[in-house]
């Protein structure tokens, strides 16, 4: 919908009307066509201003329409009609001008933006490219290098940067519509030739071929298999080398190759999944919109190790007062220094003053008596955490939320150490905590909806993608990682090498394969957890029995390496070899290959050829299978929670939509069949036992992923 009113005598004001972001749905597009025609044919109207209702210009094409039979007037001729108009058209940009919204503004003859507005062409983040002339007009307006940056990254820019780049003509801190109307009055009747961007020549940067080769190489590397960024470069190259009309044909052709692609579907699924997980619910029926969060004005962090430092900085950067507690004096001093640096660098990136004064450092836990929320981030040891929760329960004022940053220990057990278990939740951050977007918010069996609502709201305030999950060993992310890494170890036993396994996972799109990641985070971290679980001691014995623990197949490979002090990058030796301890670049290690051969010989194992497909099927399908168990257990309310956790916290390639979405793309029947195939080959590996929910979904015709949440809900209501 769009409305035309005449203001200031001779200005036609067209207002886009489709809350919440005035997306260019069929109805809005029709409204624009109608109002532009009326404004251009009304002799009283000398110039036109286009703006959006509710202080928002336009969020672009209506993404909800993509999966449907799209109707209504197409965007390209709509924008063309504005550009060729004989009356000046001014875009008054408030709030956001993104995607088709910015393309609409680029069709206008002038653009005036509010100082707080954000602009961009983020289509690439949805697996697409700017297909309403953006890839052809933007390079003509701001040059090829700047257009390449904005379109291949999809980043949002501020009005100030847009002015500097030449995307907008003026920035105002006042009412943008008023300023635009005044401006429209001033340009009425003026010539528009130079204002029609499509008729401008596209500036050809020096060494253009080299520039495009360089950018394409960089984009291919960072894309890790995503196709949209590459198509974006190709579209801009068309702008730089072809006349506008031919460039537009190329843009349309490239868009056609992306629009129905699995990757576009995956990325748009993630867009909506990210919004769906914000609408959380608990098995009790409590929901995001019925649970009122408690106000948090002052917070505290207990333990200033790597995680504690990042969490305290992320809290302070929201403007909250933070008490940072570390009982070890030396550690406290070191933390203070490092955190000041993190605050300084963060402030520089955001163009604000560093929040040094927001953090009060203390060696004494009593300093947290008056805070509203505490996040415990001490060493991952249950006995130590129990003691801290007992102290906090005695110290803190009534109503204080007690949160733990444990990455998998029992939240209910920690809650039982306090006098108010309903005020205890897990807030599982990911390293580095002031950078990583994901936050797993874990509610225990006694956690109140209000406690969960408060933690989720704080997560949003910290700029995190917060996902509410139930309490179980390893929560969602780490619980699913166990079968994934177990299979990787078994594949080494059966003939694979770390390079082969990592190669398959990195070709799939992970930034780092499992063994490279293990070397980065340190083999000793997993070893410590296995020892707590009574596993991590290699008996040195040989044969099958040596590889059975707690009645199931177990690979002591990692334990043996740790017993030899091979902890990864930190010791310069792990699954790969590094130049020196702390080295970052891992190279295949001949020692490890011969160690694997000796190990197989010692255990009577015969190496066989293993290909990438087997690596992916065994590592990813067991992870997915555990995802179905998590849905069955009600730990996650829907597949969206699992997929957002893996995309934002575990490096699952976004253009593959997350493990559960990927399973729906592969086909649940195939996932089930392959799991049954491998389970038959490895009956001593319970993680290969297909989950009943998976079987149930296949038996009911493998409904699409967006239907699973309802299936899970019905399943639990029957329990
Ligand atoms: C031809 C052309 O070349 C191509 C092909 C295109 O143009 S492709 C499209 C390009 N445009 C985009 O990529 C912009 C996508 N949107 C955003 O980045 C953000 O939304 C936002 C604009 C920065 C606001 O963020 P927010 O945090 O303040 O609120 P929100 O919760 O995110 O959003 C509020 C509500 O609006 C919904 N929404 C937002 N943008 C939408 C869009 N473009 N289409 C449909 N719905 C949209 C969103 O799902 C949510 O709904 P619900 O969950 O309440 O039911």
UniProtKB/TrEMBL annotation:
Q: Name one GO biological process term.
A: fatty acid beta-oxidation
**Family listed:** In the N-terminal section; belongs to the enoyl-CoA hydratase/isomerase family.
Organism of origin = Pleuronectes platessa (European plaice)
Annotated GO CC locations: peroxisome
| CDD domains from the UniProt entry | crotonase-like
Ordered alphabetically, the record's keywords are: Fatty acid metabolism, Isomerase, Lipid metabolism, Lyase, Multifunctional enzyme, NAD, Oxidoreductase, Peroxisome
Q: Where is the 3-hydroxyacyl-CoA dehydrogenase NAD binding domain?
A: 298-471
Q: Write down the EC number.
A: 1.1.1.35, 4.2.1.17, 5.3.3.8
The terms under GO molecular function for this entry are: (3S)-3-hydroxyacyl-CoA dehydrogenase (NAD+) activity; delta(3)-delta(2)-enoyl-CoA isomerase activity; enoyl-CoA hydratase activity; NAD+ binding
Places the protein is found: Peroxisome
State whether keyword Lyase applies: yes
Q: Which reaction does it catalyse?
A: (3S)-hydroxyhexadecanoyl-CoA = (2E)-hexadecenoyl-CoA + H2O; (3Z)-hexenoyl-CoA = (2E)-hexenoyl-CoA; (3E)-hexenoyl-CoA = (2E)-hexenoyl-CoA; a 4-saturated-(3S)-3-hydroxyacyl-CoA = a (3E)-enoyl-CoA + H2O
Instruction: Tell me which stretches of the chain form a coiled coil.
Output: none
* SUPFAM superfamilies xref list: 6-phosphogluconate dehydrogenase C-terminal domain-like (SSF48179), ClpP/crotonase (SSF52096), NAD(P)-binding Rossmann-fold domains (SSF51735)
Q: What is this protein called?
A: Peroxisomal bifunctional enzyme
What's the subunit arrangement here? Monomer.
* UniProt pathway annotation: Lipid metabolism; fatty acid beta-oxidation
